[in-house]
């Protein structure tokens, strides 16, 4: 929203200075920004919007760099099409779309739809258009088997939520602003700013918990910056959180501390959980987890005794060997201690505009997994996907169903997916590769065609999914700042490419008509008269979709049925957003299981406890975990000099005892190897690691032929996914194991 012109104290000299208030689209914190522009230029610095009702002046270093992203000379602004020499040439949109049609239709006509697939990357959760229209690409394409960054991320949580609550995107969220006791497991908001926990300034909230007499505990193999805001750091052997949590539940039952509180009549499976944990004593897991039995007992008692508590876990609990068990068990602990669906416990967000994935289009049904299997490895489908590491073998292995065409939407799997080196070898074997992306990076350099989206400042913003797990209910609309009017919006690209994959030709594709059809279907689902609703709008696309979701949402006007209800216009009229208070209890309304109750002991998940039992006592030697840094965003913001300059952040963190044992000095180079690969990386000796665990950041390794990221190539770093064997997955979710992988570390002679 632009509210002022002629800002007198502005740094700019021109008379076109405007101040814009908008939401940062980069991460789940959704910070309000104040951006000044002078004509076509962004005037630094980008600041926090202190009046933003949600973020109240919080911001991180990335948010100040949206101008750099917008002005980055390496950002792709016109379609690129590879010529016969393999060199990208700039093309018109007509030429680029024609080339897409030619390539995709040859594959479809020769090999059929099963030879085509897509990969969807992380910005699909954040980008205004992609978050609302990637589903349109999938539906238009008719492709059955797709891939996404989800299987190197939150798939275990999706499985757990599908089984427990009947919707794979219904995630319990810590009521961090009211809780008295917070356990953070396998998450580092000091870097990530919160994940599946939307909250500006998570660390500030942790400080407040302690100021009001509460307690914060971090369970992590690394003493992260988050621990500076906690009372206690509990180091844990990577991949063993499920054993720790089973023992914690054991103590709750054993000591009579179980209290289901308000959930008593809404939960099935209490006895099954009790029976399951009966022999999981703290003593049984202490050696494997390296958490002393007495610590587990004390933590169980403290959680049970606290006025309110939240046990929260994230990527460290998902991207590991027992990701689903661990992701499920944190919800179990919260349920068993009356910390569920009550203020200060885990609650469900209540967005002004519900997210598409949280809508239940079908009647409740028993979850089904393994309805089909991947062709080469025979990996079972889980929630419609197989592990992303299957993609390379599906491209490389000849036979019926071999993948010949790939569409990548805002993803960089050559860096972000396990066994990255094999995918890098596989992609050139494709007959057709189309990337919808803004840079020529490790992945897109293999494309036949790159179709660029808009910069964050060239499009409006309203987060689609993130409010579903936000610590408060609020909303904020951002207008686009720059409108050059000469390029398609990403929603149009997605719809067109999807239709091309589906066999339509450019001549017959009408994006608006497809969008209207999609929109009318949604209206009917909501019980609205589609024709009447459509008549409200001149334009289609994500803005119309946002208005629809606000109007059918819990506070919406339903197109006049609730005359005092909200519409998007209310947010346009309030440039700093509107706040509607903390989370509210939502069980049983939100539960979509056949029983209508929360299934606390889903058989699909509990059956995996035997696998964990067999893991006890195993010693893997040195293991590798991943980390993030506040100045990086997965693989794609290393081209911003302001963020990457200074100290090298792509280092191997090693505990001093391990460094001594291996013969590594601080600043020396180590070779880290697994059975699939080997990388060389500078060592940072630090007692913030627990002994036996080393840590590398993910998202690096940009110095590859053909990458056109001038800054990132200079600060290239190394790719830790060259080490992660693709076959390592959490068996019941198919999610990658990139944490807790066995590595060999040796010094590289100077
Ligand atoms: N070892 C290890 N591997 C990991 C992880 C880990 O912790 N350790 N984490 C995993 C996780 S959680 C995730 S989410 C994945 C991320 O995996 P990916 O999503 O594959 O990777 P990103 O680095 O997020 O790549 C985003 C891509 O989108 C492009 N992009 C950015 N903005 C836009 C836009 O507005 N429009 C379009 N069209 N493109 C855009 C960027 O240029 C880049 O190519 O990595 C996973 N991989
Ligand atoms: N600045 C920045 N912010 C980001 C991103 C980014 O790349 N940069 N990425 C975004 C994305 S896509 C995501 S998914 C989120 C992720 O958000 P977080 O989950 O907070 O991610 P990390 O900061 O990687 O923290 C994971 C922690 O898990 C620990 N860990 C590793 N293995 C284990 C284990 O087996 N058990 C336990 N208990 N802990 C373990 C690691 O040491 C690390 O401290 O962050 C998002 N926000
Ligand atoms: S924490 Fe940083 S990257 Fe995340 S929304 Fe706020 S300013 Fe943007
Ligand atoms: Mo992620």
Describe the structure.
The chain has 750 residues and is an alpha/beta fold. Among the domains are: 1-71, N-terminal domain of TfIIb, CATH 2.20.25.90; 155-353 and 587-611, Dimethylsulfoxide Reductase, domain 2; 619-747, Barwin-like endoglucanases (Beta Barrel). The strands form 9 sheets. The protein has a 7-stranded mixed β-sheet with strand order 6-5-18-17-16-7-8, with helices on one face. A hairpin with an 8-residue loop joins strand 2 and strand 3. It binds ligand MGD (2 copies), iron/sulfur cluster and molybdenum atom. Iron/sulfur cluster (SF4) is lined by residues 24, 26-27, 29-31, 59-60, 62-63, 193.
Kindly list the characteristics that best describe this protein.
30 strands, binds molybdenum atom, alpha/beta, 29% helix, Barwin-like endoglucanases, Dimethylsulfoxide Reductase, domain 2, N-terminal domain of TfIIb, binds ligand MGD, globular
């Amino acid at each position: 929203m632009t509210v002022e012109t002629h800002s007198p104290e502005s740094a700019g000299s021109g008379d076109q200075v405007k101040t814009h208030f908008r939401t940062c689209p980069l991460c789940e914190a959704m910070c309000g920004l104040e951006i000044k522009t002078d004509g076509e230029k962004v005037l630094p610095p980008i600041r926090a919007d202190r009046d933003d009702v949600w973020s109240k002046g919080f911001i991180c270093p990335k948010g100040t760099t949206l101008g750099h992203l917008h002005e980055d000379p390496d950002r792709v602004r016109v379609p690129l099409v590879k010529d016969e020499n393999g060199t990208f040439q700039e093309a018109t949109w007509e030429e680029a779309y024609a080339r897409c049609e030619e390539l995709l239709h040859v594959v479809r006509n020769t090999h059929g739809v099963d030879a085509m697939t897509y990969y969807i990357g992380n910005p699909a959760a954040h980008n205004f258009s992609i978050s609302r229209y990637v589903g349109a690409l999938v539906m238009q394409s008719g492709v059955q088997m797709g891939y996404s960054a989800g299987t190197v991320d939150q798939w275990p949580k999706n499985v757990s939520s599908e089984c427990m609550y009947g919707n794979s995107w219904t995630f319990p969220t810590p009521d961090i602003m009211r809780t008295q006791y917070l356990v953070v497991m396998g998450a580092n908001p000091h870097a990530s700013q919160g994940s599946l926990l939307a909250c500006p300034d998570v660390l500030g909230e942790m400080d407040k918990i302690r100021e009001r007499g509460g307690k914060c505990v971090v369970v992590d193999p690394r003493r992260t910056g988050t621990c500076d805001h906690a009372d206690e750091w509990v180091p844990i052997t990577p991949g063993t959180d499920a054993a720790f949590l089973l023992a914690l539940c054991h103590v709750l039952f054993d000591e009579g501390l179980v209290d289901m509180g308000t959930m008593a009549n809404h939960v099935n499976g209490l006895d099954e959980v009790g029976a399951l944990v009966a022999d999981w004593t703290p003593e049984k897991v202490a050696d494997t987890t390296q958490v002393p039995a007495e610590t587990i007992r004390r933590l169980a008692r403290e959680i049970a005794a606290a006025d309110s508590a939240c046990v929260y876990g994230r990527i460290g609990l998902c991207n590991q060997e027992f990701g689903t068990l661990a992701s499920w068990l944190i919800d179990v602990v919260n349920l068993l201690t009356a910390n569920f669906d009550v203020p200060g416990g885990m609650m469900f967000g209540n967005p002004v505009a519900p997210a598409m994935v949280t809508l239940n289009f079908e009647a409740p049904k028993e979850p089904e997994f393994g309805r089909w299997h991947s062709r080469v490895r025979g990996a079972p489908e889980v929630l419609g996907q197989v592990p992303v590491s299957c993609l390379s073998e599906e491209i490389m292995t000849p036979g019926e169903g071999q993948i010949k065409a790939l569409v990548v939407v805002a993803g960089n799997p050559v860096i972000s997916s396990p066994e990255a080196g094999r995918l890098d070898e596989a992609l050139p074997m494709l007959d057709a590769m189309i990337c919808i992306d803004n840079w020529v990076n490790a992945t897109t350099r293999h494309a036949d065609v790159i179709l660029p989206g808009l910069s964050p400042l060239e499009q409006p913003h309203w987060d689609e999914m993130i409010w579903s797990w936000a610590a408060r209910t609020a909303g904020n609309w951002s207008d686009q700042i720059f409108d050059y009017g000469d390029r398609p919006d990403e929603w149009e690209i997605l719809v067109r490419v999807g239709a091309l994959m589906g066999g339509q030709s450019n001549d017959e594709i009408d994006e608006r008509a497809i969008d209207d059809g999609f929109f009318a279907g949604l209206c009917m689902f909501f019980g609205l008269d589609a024709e009447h609703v459509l008549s409200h709008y001149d334009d289609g696309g994500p803005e119309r979709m946002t208005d629809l979701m606000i109007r059918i949402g819990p506070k919406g006007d339903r197109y006049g049925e609730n005359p005092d209800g909200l519409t998007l216009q209310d947010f346009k009229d309030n440039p700093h957003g509107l706040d509607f208070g903390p989370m509210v209890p939502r069980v049983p309304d939100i539960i979509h299981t056949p029983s209508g109750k929360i299934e606390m002991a889903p058989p699909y998940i509990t059956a995996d406890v035997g696998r964990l039992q067999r893991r006890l006592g195993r010693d893997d030697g040195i293991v590798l975990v991943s980390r993030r840094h506040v100045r990086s965003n997965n693989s794609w913001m290393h081209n911003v000099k302001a963020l990457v300059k200074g100290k090298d952040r792509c280092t191997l963190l090693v505990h001093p005892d391990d460094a001594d044992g291996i013969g590594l000095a601080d600043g020396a180079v180590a070779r880290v190897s697994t059975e699939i690969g080997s990388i060389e990386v500078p060592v940072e000796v630090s007692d913030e690691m627990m002994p036996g665990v080393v840590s590398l950041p993910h998202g690096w390794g940009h110095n590859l032929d053909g990458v056109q990221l001038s800054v990132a190539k200079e600060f290239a770093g190394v790719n830790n996914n060259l080490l992660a064997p693709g076959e390592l997955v959490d068996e019941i979710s198919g999610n990658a194991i990139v944490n807790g992988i066995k590595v060999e570390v040796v010094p590289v002679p100077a």
